Amino acid sequence: MLQRIRKWALWAMGILMALGEGCSQHYPVNALLKRYDPRSGYRIMAGERIADSESVLLFLTFSGGGTRAAAMAYGVLEELAQTEIEWKGVRRPLLDQVAMISSVSGGSFTAAYYGLFGRRVFQDFESRFLKGNIQKDLYRQTLDLGNWPRLWSSHFGRSDLAAEYYHRNIFEGATFGDLMLRHGPWILINATDITTGGIFSFTQEYFDLICSDLSSFSVGRAVAASSAVPLLLSPITLYNFAGSCDSPDPPWMEGALQSSEGSKQKSHLALHFRSYRDAEKKPFIHLMDGGLSDNLGLRAILDQIIVRGGIGPFLESLGAEKVQRIAFVVVNAEKEPEADPSFQEKNLSSPSIMRAVARIPIVRYNLETIDRLRASFREWEKEIRSHRRARFPEGQGESSSADGPEPFPEIRFDLVEVDFNALRDDRERQFFHKLPTSFSLNPQWVDRVKEVGRRILRESPAYQRLLRDLRPGVSTIRDHTGG
Fold first, then answer.
1. Contact 483/119 with Cβ under 8 angstroms?
2. Angstrom distance (rounded) from CA 73 to CA 121
3. How far is CA 173 from CA 138, 166, 216, in A?
């Protein structure tokens, strides 16, 4: 009996000592920016990232929705990899024309993996993430006694534990410095600043505001912030070092704050940016699921266009000022509510109310964002014509032929929506809408989501029209597994 008491006493003492050590445990601190350089870091600028910047550009957005959203985004990448276009006698996969992928939550896993490893995504992303039980692995991490001291600390949460797991087991320890060295599309991983409700994109432009260096920041940690579902996970926290470096306020920000006649969207974005410039008032930045501010991942691209002064300068920053066609492919894995409160007379439970209330702003926000994009197309077409005239006063492009300089052709925009609502069969549509948004999905369901993502894209009238216009030829590639 005495021996058993001693054993329990030693066990209790070990636990107390571990918990005491937990007070000193801390999440990784983002690095201080030693010197501001507008030409360095993971920031959007021209480079060899698009196969042909004169024909067509694709901007992809991957929504939230757990493994289901990641699988749907993967299916879209597969379809684009197997679709070949021909432009000026050169054949290439349409996937090579993707200039940017903007993502939130579950979609950020697919976007980040493709950004880091390119076509290797078609070789091992399924086994590493889509068909793995990530949720179970994270649960085991939480139950591991070795992690309890850190989780007991007020400076380390469940999302920090998830970030470590993603960093090691999914993204192979990669940082944004590694992502910068890739020549694939620009990847916008987006989270939500829970104090302002605004989007926080993991680009050096955002990190300039807080005098921090994104290059050494873990991609897995950024994805953890983008997918940190409230209540289930904790925020990912950044330190604000604003004022400790020589990074200036963005030039557009001052004008947007001073002008009373400018765009309300631009002034609102300027206020959001300015909130980061005072480290005394905002010493920490707490980030959670990007779907809270925009579940489509589309507004981050629209914000990038605003801060660069419009669509013309934005395309110029990508080295694509002569592009003739731009398509936005919006991949939306939105989930239907589990139960419709309309069928209940009274006494709705608190969880039912919370689910219903949480879904209302997401659905309305998604619709407003799509409408905003559609309305922007006509304005952008006029803006690009004006921008090109200003840059080339004679209305001529830089390219030449035997007959002299060639004028720039008109630019066209397309919106391709990949959404479960496009499915005509009611039972099939309901099946996909009701799949869980967890990070664990039956492997057979993963295959079905991938296939339906490809099918919805392939059968989209807007996508078919785009392919018809990209003549003289469209064909299909069978083997897409090259590295």
1. yes
2. 12
3. 17, 8, 11
Structure pTM? 0.87
Calpha distance 42→46 (Å, rounded): 12
Spatial CB neighbours of 164, under 8 Å, sequence gap ≥ 6: 220
CA 305 to chain CA centroid, nearest Å = 16
CA angle 256, 259, 262 (to 5 degrees): 70
Q: Which amino acid appears at position 451 of this protein?
A: E
Burial class (CB in 10 A: 0-12, 13-18, 19+), 478: exposed
Over residues 173-200, the mean pLDDT reads 95
Judged on CB neighbours under 10 Å (0-12, 13-18, 19+), 28 is middle
The torsion defined by the Cα of 374, 379, 382 and 386, in degrees rounded to 10, comes to: -130
Q: Where are the beta strands (DSSP E) in 147-185?
A: none
How many alpha carbons fall within 13 Å on the CB side of residue 406?
A: 9
Convert the pLDDT of each residue in 69-125 to its tens digit. Answer: 999 999 999 999 999 988 777 888 999 999 999 999 999 999 999 999 999 999 999
Q: 291 in helix, strand or coil?
A: helix
List pLDDT tens digits, range 428-465. Answer: 999 999 999 889 999 999 999 999 999 999 999 999 99
